[in-house]
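Lay summary. Proteins are chains of building blocks that fold into shapes, and those shapes determine what they do. In this project we predict the shape from the chain. Here is one chain we studied, written as its sequence of building blocks.
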Amino acid sequence: MPRLLPRLIKKVNESSPLGARPRHLDKRGYVPRRRKSLYQPAPERPSFGVAGRTQSILLDDSSPVTNSRLYVRHKTLPPCVHVSASEFAAKRADMDVPREMTTQEREWWSSPYLRMLSSPLRRCAVSHKCMPNDFLIRLTPLQLPVPRGAKSIQVWMPDGLEHPKFKRRKGQSALYITCWKDLFSAANINRIGSLRTAPNAVFHSLLAAQIGHLLRVRITQELRLLAEALSQRTKRSDPEATILRRLTFAEFRILRETGTISHPDAVAVLVVPPVNRDPTTREKPIPSMEPEIATTDWTSSAASGSLRERLLPPLSTLYGVQPRPPTEELEFASLLPNTQVPLYNGLTMFPSAPQRAFLHKALCEVLEAERRYRLGRPARRSADREPPNRQRNEKASHAFLLTSNTRTVERADPAALAIALWRLRMWEGDPYHSTTCSGGWEVDGEWRSRYIKEMQ
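And here is the predicted shape, written in a compact code that computers can read:
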């Protein structure tokens, strides 16, 4: 009897809707692929001539006719930015020895746009077009707990939007939709037919708000991982490889006046001032990433959308980057389009005051790691942060400059943060409010422009 009661209570709790948990429809769940190298050095190609042969080529042990698999060439594993001595010694016995990236490969890895465009291709369920995975939102069906005898309820939930170190993927079967919140309206959702994986699954009313919140959570997670990576590398091997820093008031004023960023390796500029005190309670908001459901839906009608545009600045604005002087290798550099870098407004990017305070705190933690790397010790005194005798033009502003190049990737991965910021920019549809294509790094911009014209 003592052994039966605990199991009986467990079964009762699982059968009741209050004790049961939502589960994915896939029994196996998502299993990440383990990198396994099939690389084997191919033998030399034998001669098919009869000169010097005592037997037929079919009787050779490594005959290309009977053992053709020996001559199949496989790719090696992708290189890593850093390969530790222990990892190299552990895999030294394998044919495929890990190697570090070359300078050219580090340059490719430091580009957030190249990494987004090289992600696996998936098909959008609304536009029916293949696009890179980083330009899509992944949804998986989830089984909700219901009372016994009631009809089962299946809903589509976002999956894989957070960083894998914080929350891994759950579902195996998935649905992909373009990363644009306008496509999650009722009119576009009805265009998606019945799917074989989950024919009875529905889209809940707060799906767009949930996706927007998770995209903002991903930005704070990338900042946290960036601060941890910079804190672990305290050796000042390259003092000029600064990933995040504040622009001075003079630099920020020149950026506003000229519309040009004087840093060729810049990938983003974030304007995030400290959050002011609440006018009612006279207290600063506590930094938190808890989701907030607004009482009024800003995207419910066109009138409310225009009101939001008058109250808040645009989420991002593209600024040109000062081009580098042409070299002999790139004589045609003057014919290429000018590189553009987004400037993000923290007030529009994080409308919630607690979430914006959390973003500002995360940025300051990365700056603290940069100061520790530059000074060799934490900046404890305020004098280390901002000398009092500095003029206003030399003081730090509220604009944060994010840089990514071949030297910064050796310290951390700032391109991952730039990708998370760009995905939020695509989700909010900032480049597509006008009927003309922005001409930047946009995938399927012409289709979006035609869609906007049809909806008007």
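What the prediction tells us: The chain has 13 helices and twelve strands.
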